[in-house]
């Protein structure tokens, strides 16, 4: 049987406010456990929540970025449940009247296609505390510093049909929130977390299968792996005669498996009702228009500008706008070198290779944009060849100096003196008479070209890669033509 995967994501984004959503307690990361849990965050008797306007503004910004409806009136509800990291026994959230309505984003896939993913809504809520297990033998510690940190929960439509699409969607959401500056998006610190709702159904069936929710996946790579693992589990279970249970599961990256945590709750299990301590949030057109007018350039707009301003195609521009930092880096290299296409090629080629190999993000890249621009200029002005430029780039990555210092130190300057190159060519022709005769005796153009390139290779080898390739080609062609 052929199966179709159905995926929806719930992305929790910690908003970059200085204080919490309903109290004045700090949201700074890294404080001593429980040092930033106020009486309001814990709902101590007599404490009343006061809404942080900054969280509202950031939610509206996100709504515009995904072409969503903005609610002029939204309502906070109490989601009632007890867990150790939520000692007040409920979470303030928005169930029935969220601040951001339906929207959509477009994602680019590896095959060059584009998919539009619907957003069902996005709502504001408070984060819970954090359970700590590592430092307590047989027990758990509770750190309530995170309790009350503002979250924007972004709920997608079940529009994704592969793990690749889900990861691309998550990257797009990450790009949007970081471009807006409403979150740092640091998944390693919990600033952005993802729940994956996964089900399978026979191809052609319109009814959804029973879904499992994989909680708190914290990297793009793990989202793909967790979804693929869960899809395999569900298909195998069904084909063996079993049934998928609606439940919450945990992804274990070390074992590459999902494990059951608890039976999935339904909305009525949480006994939602409007929070009696908070009035409905009402915002007017003037407030909404002011936020819209102040929006920065977003990924899709930047991609379109890169295409028109720098002459890139869509496949070249799309990966460059995945983060604001990467886009800024590209523009610095493009302007410094005067060659946008070479800038894009180096960034998505050698730079991306070394970043992936060393698991380094662009903000931590040891090769500065100005150094990469200088390196491209040195290839353009003939100081070094394109092949040797890769050697210089490796040295730049290893912190061995500036491009010019590395070129001088390693003696990599390209030989462009025609008399020197002519002497090299003469020596190669003299030492490889059989190759010369073979070339001159060949009548098939394609084969002759191959044999010519072999002679070029001998000259480059003799020069230790330093001879100007264009001059080598010209001089060698002249010599062989005169010999014919």
Automatic annotation (TrEMBL):
<dbReference type="Pfam" id="PF02637">
    <property type="entry name" value="GatB_Yqey"/>
</dbReference>
<dbReference type="GO" id="GO:0006412">
    <property type="term" value="P:translation"/>
</dbReference>
<feature type="domain" description="Asn/Gln amidotransferase">
    <location>
        <begin position="328"/>
        <end position="480"/>
    </location>
</feature>
<protein>
    <recommendedName>
        <fullName>Aspartyl/glutamyl-tRNA(Asn/Gln) amidotransferase subunit B</fullName>
        <ecNumber>6.3.5.-</ecNumber>
    </recommendedName>
</protein>
<keyword id="KW-0436">Ligase</keyword>
<dbReference type="InterPro" id="IPR017958">
    <property type="entry name" value="Gln-tRNA_amidoTrfase_suB_CS"/>
</dbReference>
<dbReference type="InterPro" id="IPR023168">
    <property type="entry name" value="GatB_Yqey_C_2"/>
</dbReference>
<keyword id="KW-0547">Nucleotide-binding</keyword>
<dbReference type="GO" id="GO:0050567">
    <property type="term" value="F:glutaminyl-tRNA synthase (glutamine-hydrolyzing) activity"/>
</dbReference>
<dbReference type="Pfam" id="PF02934">
    <property type="entry name" value="GatB_N"/>
</dbReference>
<dbReference type="InterPro" id="IPR018027">
    <property type="entry name" value="Asn/Gln_amidotransferase"/>
</dbReference>
<keyword id="KW-0808">Transferase</keyword>
<keyword id="KW-0067">ATP-binding</keyword>
<dbReference type="GO" id="GO:0005524">
    <property type="term" value="F:ATP binding"/>
</dbReference>
<dbReference type="InterPro" id="IPR003789">
    <property type="entry name" value="Asn/Gln_tRNA_amidoTrase-B-like"/>
</dbReference>
<dbReference type="GO" id="GO:0016740">
    <property type="term" value="F:transferase activity"/>
</dbReference>
<comment type="function">
    <text>Allows the formation of correctly charged Asn-tRNA(Asn) or Gln-tRNA(Gln) through the transamidation of misacylated Asp-tRNA(Asn) or Glu-tRNA(Gln) in organisms which lack either or both of asparaginyl-tRNA or glutaminyl-tRNA synthetases. The reaction takes place in the presence of glutamine and ATP through an activated phospho-Asp-tRNA(Asn) or phospho-Glu-tRNA(Gln).</text>
</comment>
<dbReference type="InterPro" id="IPR042114">
    <property type="entry name" value="GatB_C_1"/>
</dbReference>
<dbReference type="InterPro" id="IPR014746">
    <property type="entry name" value="Gln_synth/guanido_kin_cat_dom"/>
</dbReference>
<dbReference type="InterPro" id="IPR006075">
    <property type="entry name" value="Asn/Gln-tRNA_Trfase_suB/E_cat"/>
</dbReference>
<dbReference type="GO" id="GO:0070681">
    <property type="term" value="P:glutaminyl-tRNAGln biosynthesis via transamidation"/>
</dbReference>
<keyword id="KW-0648">Protein biosynthesis</keyword>
<dbReference type="GO" id="GO:0050566">
    <property type="term" value="F:asparaginyl-tRNA synthase (glutamine-hydrolyzing) activity"/>
</dbReference>
<dbReference type="InterPro" id="IPR017959">
    <property type="entry name" value="Asn/Gln-tRNA_amidoTrfase_suB/E"/>
</dbReference>
<comment type="subunit">
    <text>Heterotrimer of A, B and C subunits.</text>
</comment>
<comment type="similarity">
    <text>Belongs to the GatB/GatE family. GatB subfamily.</text>
</comment>
<dbReference type="InterPro" id="IPR004413">
    <property type="entry name" value="GatB"/>
</dbReference>
